[in-house]
């Protein structure tokens, strides 16, 4: 057979040309021509009329936005494929021997069936900062809340110069020391009316001969009015507020405000410092700012891994099926534990498959676009920028410059080339082997 | 109501006669005409295509004004949505030899670009006559390039408005502020009452540029504003420092911004409006700043009723006069290779007429720069007040600075003004850093 083919080519070259022509035409029109034109276009300015040489490439590396995109692409290519492959490997090995493995694999593989755009929208919601809407923060907040109790008055704060100053942590310290016979007035503001609906009218307590008394209240009557620092009609107490008397840094007495905001401390608190405990105010944990400038890229990589770990798992599981059982058994008989079997036998035998998965994902990650466009909000989009997205904005955004866009496209192509060469080499070796 | 009816019957009857008059032959007596403010030629069999960004209800409203043109002239007009990037859209169409006849542009910079490239056609005498009769010089000049009139401003936006939740104001017992100091004081009081006072859409850079422009216009004055818009004074100028310092009164305070600066940076424009008006018992924010179009977001996204739960006051005066920053859409006739047709000019003249503005205004969600429009045409009081404020400003309004600037500086995510002001919202202490960034970006975008 090997001898037959050249004979045909020699005898009827036109037949060969005929057979090759459709493929050549398609490849030429859809691959070679666009690449060539992009190269050509990247040497011209925005309107496409003036030749600028390599200026677009220079601009590309001088532009801070594009440099940022390059940096993010680097993070992506180092982290995302490795993470997806590692997770895929773990899933594949773990599911190999469980009974419902097919069902399990199906579930893991399912995200692959979703378009990038839909996945982007899903994760935009998952990462929503408001714990009532974003499931990621909802989980964090509910876990946090099981271990620590929320403060009763997180919003309450003093007016400036109202006799309360910020103390250690988030506590508030009264500027006047406690005194028997002189009720302490501790006014706070900033609490929304519905939150004090259950509280009673605030009352200024009568001076007591044998106790330090005072009132903690919301110094703001709904509808305005009322004098600052004075308990007016319609102003509510702040029940449950913990008041501490502190002397030389140690708490000597504690009291809790009643429904009308009044509290009473024993007489020995006389002369001590009055402090509203930090536990009253500690701002409740509101989750993590997933889409903020620092976490936005890792967060998007997370959503990518969610999509592609299933792909990695399926390929690796297929490779795993080809690993000879006898070798694993032999190792076990020789006294290797499961970790050693995995580390020394399974992984080396799977290496070719792992390489295929890793390289495929690398190529895929280089052109990542949709997830970043959809998940990153406007204010942090520059922090999440990647080359493909920048290509799009440069070419088709406001003030389009398709010369610069083409230059980015050519650069992306150059980035893919080494991975491609690696892939082709590997394929050749496999054929020889 | 009676006049409106009389008008429509009169218009219907005019159809046949108008054909004899021709487009250019209109006399000067039109302005005085009681029945119709414009005479149009017979254009039976003519086909026109309009491209604009509008979709949905906005498009339907616009088309109702166009439908009247069709019935008066017999021309057929079709609508093509252009997508957000009108310049690119038109460029492609012209390259393909199928340019729309009329295009409506949201950025004044694009008009200049089109005029320079010879794509746009100058208006004829009939259009000029309508413009002179109905438009303040300021609005006319915005549609001109190098002394030649190219465009007709068909729609205006008043971007000097602050919308507020009446519950929040009642709870705090405050009233509408008139100066910036009063505004900050009102915001503090609202904060004391337990409602986060100001909702800022930091995720959308354009809302931040509008904040800055209002403050700058009121504080530094219209002349400085024009110079800054043309980049004749650098962004490192002291007046910019002053405006940013003023803005930092608000942006630099955790208590005055709903969600603090970080929360504001996560908030996009629709959310900034809905969070202010969604909960009428215990609002998540008391006030939100943006143009007249906030009304439609309130109507679409919340149960609040504009005029009852949601009211509006003019942007407070920072310097002597309160600012009037406006935006708008300009209709331009495209004639990339040759003269514009009679039909194109007739449609532009129609857009410049009070009749067209009245039909469009009745549909709501629309503000006309046409000063001859009887404001009773607006469907509600809030819109009428906004429109009257805009017309009353006469020539003292200024066009949105970021829309005048090159798009790379004034209208692109991640660069120029948008990025600079987001950085400023993140760190309001670093005013000089923001100014240096603005100046370097402006130098690049303006190409000097």
From TrEMBL, chain A:
PROSITE patterns: ABC_TM1 (PS50928). It comes from Streptomyces alkaliphilus. It is a multi-pass membrane protein. The keyword Cell membrane applies. GO terms for cellular component: plasma membrane. Belongs to the binding-protein-dependent transport system permease family. InterPro entries: MetI-like, MetI-like_sf, UgpAE/MalFG_permease. CDD domains: TM_PBP2 (cd06261). Keywords: Cell membrane, Membrane, Transmembrane, Transmembrane helix, Transport. Residues 150-174 are annotated as: Disordered. Its main location: membrane. Residues 70-423 form the ABC transmembrane type-1 domain. This is ABC transporter permease subunit. The chain crosses the membrane at residues 14-35, 74-94, 106-127, 305-324, 345-366, 404-424. It is found in: Cell membrane.
């Amino acid at each position: 057979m090997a001898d037959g083919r050249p004979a045909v080519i020699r005898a009827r070259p036109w037949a060969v040309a005929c057979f090759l022509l459709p493929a050549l035409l398609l490849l030429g029109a859809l691959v070679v021509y666009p690449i060539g034109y992009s190269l050509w276009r990247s040497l011209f300015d925005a309107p496409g009329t003036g030749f600028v040489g390599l200026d677009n490439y220079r601009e590309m590396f001088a532009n801070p936005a594009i440099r940022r995109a390059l940096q993010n692409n680097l993070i992506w290519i180092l982290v995302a494929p490795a993470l997806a492959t590692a997770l895929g490997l773990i899933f594949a090995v773990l599911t190999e021997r469980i009974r419902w493995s097919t069902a399990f694999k199906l579930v893991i593989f399912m995200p692959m069936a979703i378009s990038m755009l839909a996945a982007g929208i899903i994760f935009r919601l998952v990462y929503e900062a408001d714990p009532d809407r974003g499931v990621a923060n909802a989980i964090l907040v509910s876990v946090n809340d099981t271990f620590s109790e929320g403060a009763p008055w997180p919003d309450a704060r003093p007016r400036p110069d109202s006799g309360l100053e910020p103390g250690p942590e988030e506590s508030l310290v009264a500027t006047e020391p406690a005194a028997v016979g002189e009720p302490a007035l501790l006014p706070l503001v900033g609490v929304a009316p519905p939150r004090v609906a259950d509280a009673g009218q605030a009352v200024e307590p009568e001076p007591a001969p044998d106790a330090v008394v005072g009132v903690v209240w919301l110094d703001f009557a709904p509808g305005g009015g009322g004098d600052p620092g004075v308990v007016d009609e319609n102003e509510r107490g702040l029940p449950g507020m913990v008041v501490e008397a502190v002397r030389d840094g140690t708490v000597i007495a504690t009291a809790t405000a009643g429904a009308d905001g009044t509290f009473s401390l024993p007489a020995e608190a006389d002369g001590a410092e009055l402090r509203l405990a930090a536990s009253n105010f500690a701002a409740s944990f509101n989750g993590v700012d997933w889409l903020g400038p620092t976490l936005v890229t890792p967060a998007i990589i997370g959503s990518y891994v969610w999509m592609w770990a299933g792909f990695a798992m399926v390929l690796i599981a297929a490779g795993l099926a080809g690993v000879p059982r006898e070798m694993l058994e032999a190792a076990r008989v020789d006294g290797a534990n499961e970790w050693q079997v995995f580390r020394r036998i399974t992984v080396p035998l799977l290496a070719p498959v792992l390489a295929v998965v890793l390289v495929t994902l690398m190529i895929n990650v280089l052109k990542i676009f949709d997830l970043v466009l959809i998940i990153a909000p406007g204010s942090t989009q520059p922090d999440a920028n990647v080359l493909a997205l920048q290509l799009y904005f440069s070419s088709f955004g406001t003030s389009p410059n398709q010369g610069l866009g083409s230059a980015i496209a050519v650069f992306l192509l150059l980035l893919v080339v080494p991975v491609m060469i690696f892939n082709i080499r590997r394929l050749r070796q496999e054929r020889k082997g | 109501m009676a006049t409106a009816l009389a008008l429509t019957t009169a218009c219907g009857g005019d159809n046949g006669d108008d054909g004899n008059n021709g487009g250019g032959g209109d006399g000067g007596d039109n302005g005085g005409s009681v029945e119709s403010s414009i005479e149009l030629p017979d254009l039976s069999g003519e086909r026109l295509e309009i491209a604009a960004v509008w979709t949905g209800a906005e498009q339907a409203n616009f088309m109702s004004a166009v439908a009247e043109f069709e019935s008066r002239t017999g021309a057929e007009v079709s609508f093509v949505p252009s997508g957000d990037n009108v310049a690119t859209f038109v460029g492609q169409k012209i390259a393909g030899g199928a340019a729309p006849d009329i295009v409506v542009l949201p950025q004044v910079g694009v008009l200049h670009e089109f005029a320079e490239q010879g794509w746009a056609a100058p208006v004829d005498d009939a259009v000029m006559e309508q413009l002179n009769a109905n438009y303040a010089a300021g609005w006319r000049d915005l549609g001109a390039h190098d002394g030649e009139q190219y465009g007709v401003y068909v729609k205006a936006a008043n971007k000097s408005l602050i919308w507020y939740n009446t519950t929040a104001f009642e709870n705090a017992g405050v009233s509408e502020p008139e100066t910036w100091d009063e505004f900050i004081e009102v915001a503090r009081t609202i904060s004391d009452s337990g409602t986060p006072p100001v909702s800022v859409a930091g995720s959308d850079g354009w809302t931040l540029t509008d904040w800055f422009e209002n403050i700058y216009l009121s504080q530094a004055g219209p002349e400085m504003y024009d110079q800054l818009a043309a980049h004749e004074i650098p962004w490192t100028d002291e007046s910019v420092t002053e405006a940013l310092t003023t803005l930092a009164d608000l942006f630099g305070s955790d208590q005055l911004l709903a969600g603090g600066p970080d929360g504001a940076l996560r908030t996009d424009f629709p959310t900034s409006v809905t969070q202010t008006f969604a909960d009428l018992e215990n609002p998540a924010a008391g006030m939100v700043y943006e143009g007249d179009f906030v009304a439609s977001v309130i109507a679409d996204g919340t149960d609040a009723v504009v005029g009852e739960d949601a009211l509006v006051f003019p942007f407070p005066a920072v310097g002597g006069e309160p600012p009037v920053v406006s935006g708008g859409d300009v209709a331009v006739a495209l004639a990339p290779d040759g003269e514009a047709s009679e039909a194109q000019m007739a449609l532009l003249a129609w857009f410049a007429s009070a009749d067209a503005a009245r039909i469009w205004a009745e549909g709501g969600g629309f503000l006309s720069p046409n000063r001859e429009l009887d404001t009773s045409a607006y469907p509600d009081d809030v819109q009428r007040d906004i429109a009257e404020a805009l017309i009353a400003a006469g020539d003292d309004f200024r066009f949105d600075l970021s829309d005048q600037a090159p798009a790379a500086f004034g209208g692109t995510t991640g660069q120029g003004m948008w990025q600079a002001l987001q950085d400023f919202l993140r760190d309001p202490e670093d005013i000089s850093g923001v100014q240096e960034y603005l100046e370097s970006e402006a130098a690049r975008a303006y190409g000097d």
